Amino acid sequence: MFHRLSYDHQLEIAAKFLEKEIRFLTGRGCNLRVSESVLSFVVRKGFHPKLGARPMRDAAEKLVGDAVALALLLNGCANGCLTADETK
What we know:
Blueprint: H1 7-26, E1 32-34, H2 36-46, H3 56-75, E2 80-82
Parallel strand pairs: 1-2
Helix pairs in contact: 1-2, 1-3, 2-3
């Protein structure tokens, strides 16, 4: 039997997945930083009540990857600070 992860643990897990994704993209020439709003956004999008934090890795990869791809298409580069815009 597993106990539900606390929100602080969820944030910690999201931070690790984001850090891994940022390191991956840095190795490919992107210079990125992550704002605090992104952590809570990844937790909301990636945490599942029954599966726990398992889907969070996929959420971090998809959300960051989509943001980088959009920046590359619009600007030709993907450098800067990632922020979460929940109005879209």
